[in-house]
From TrEMBL:
GO terms for molecular function: diaminopimelate epimerase activity. This is Diaminopimelate epimerase. One of its GO terms (biological process) is lysine biosynthetic process via diaminopimelate. The record marks H179, E228 as: Could be important to modulate the pK values of the two catalytic cysteine residues. The gene is dapF.
Length: 300
């Protein structure tokens, strides 16, 4: 390898309710972003906290972030490269982590985040330099069931709502990325890693889908589990998935009105709104974990 490319880049590690990301400044030179993400996100051999304070290796993706200070509010250009090297158009928890990263570099508490699924406004509450998690809300846009937007295969007739597929009753919605949502009695009774791959790759989802399970809790909130496209496994949390649950619940008449709904993936609690008109919101905690340097051109 040329010595010029055998360099390291600095990174910071963040998580939002357990959905964890390596964050790299997009100004730093990473010649092959896919290879970088595949190597450093690996849960067995990937990025590690050298202090030993955090024992989970790897990550759910790499966020390449460009902060543009000259705008008011400042803009962040966000690109999420996933552990399989693919680029995701949007990531709810990633957007919340992007806002936390930017908040530590500015005095701003509001940011516009440019993603491939549009520009999202984020509001940060809390002290970016402090020990407590930040409380970050992202405006996620209007969820869509339109078959062209999900997207569904051209030969599918109309929206996919409460349709049986591979043993689950699914509703397909795009909340920045596509989700196939199933409401079940208890999310913990389903062998998600066993049932999800067939749905994730089903022909009806022309660009694939994340597979999200939800079950209703006694207080009216939902428990969540999501198998993510690009991670090709279950994650501790998925923000677009949490919004998809509330959007699908409203579409099916399980939820009414504009009030916030608690959605709890394994990694913590999120607060979601899906108003009858206007943008959905995703709110929850974000924590900085550790930082260091990583090979920009890792050997494969
Ligand atoms: N974890 C994310 C979703 C990331 C994108 C997804 N894996 C895809 O490829 O569609 C979130 O918090 O929304």
């Amino acid at each position: 390898m040329s010595p010029a490319l055998n360099h390291t880049v600095s990174f910071e590690k963040f998580h939002g309710t357990g959905n964890d990301f390596v964050v790299v400044d997009a100004d730093d030179s990473v010649p092959y972003r896919g290879r970088f993400a595949e190597t450093h996100c690996d849960r067995e051999t990937g990025v590690a906290d050298e202090s030993g304070a955090h024992d989970r290796r790897g990550a759910d993706g790499v966020l390449f972030l460009a902060l543009e200070h000259r705008f008011h509010p400042p803009r962040i250009v966000m690109t999420l490269v996933q552990p399989d090297g693919s680029v995701a158009a949007m990531c709810g928890n990633g957007a919340r982590c992007a806002a936390a990263w930017a908040a530590a570099r500015t005095d701003a508490t509001e940011f516009m985040i440019d993603t491939q699924a549009g520009t999202k406004r984020a509001v940060v509450r809390g002290n970016a330099g402090g020990d407590d998690p930040l409380d970050i809300t992202v405006e996620m846009g209007v969820p869509t069931f339109d078959p062209r937007d999900v997207p569904l295969a051209a030969d599918h007739d109309g929206e996919l709502v409460a349709e049986e597929l591979d043993g689950l009753e699914l509703t397909a919605v795009n909340t920045g990325v596509p989700h196939a949502v199933a409401f079940v009695d208890d999310v913990d009774d389903i062998a998600l890693d066993a049932v999800a791959p067939a749905i994730r790759h089903a022909d009806v989802f022309s660009e694939g889908a994340n597979v999200t399970l939800a079950s209703r809790d006694d207080d009216g909130g939902f428990s969540q589990r999501t198998f993510e496209r690009g991670v090709e496994g279950e994650t501790q949390s998925c923000g677009t998935g949490a919004v998809a649950i509330v959007a699908a619940a409203k579409r099916l008449g399980h939820v009414e009105g504009d009030d916030p709904v608690r959605v709890s993936p394994p990694g913590g609690d999120l607060e979601i709104t899906v108003p009858d008109r206007g943008s959905a919101t995703l709110r929850g905690p974000v924590e900085a974990e550790y930082e260091g340097r990583l090979a920009a051109m890792p050997e494969q």
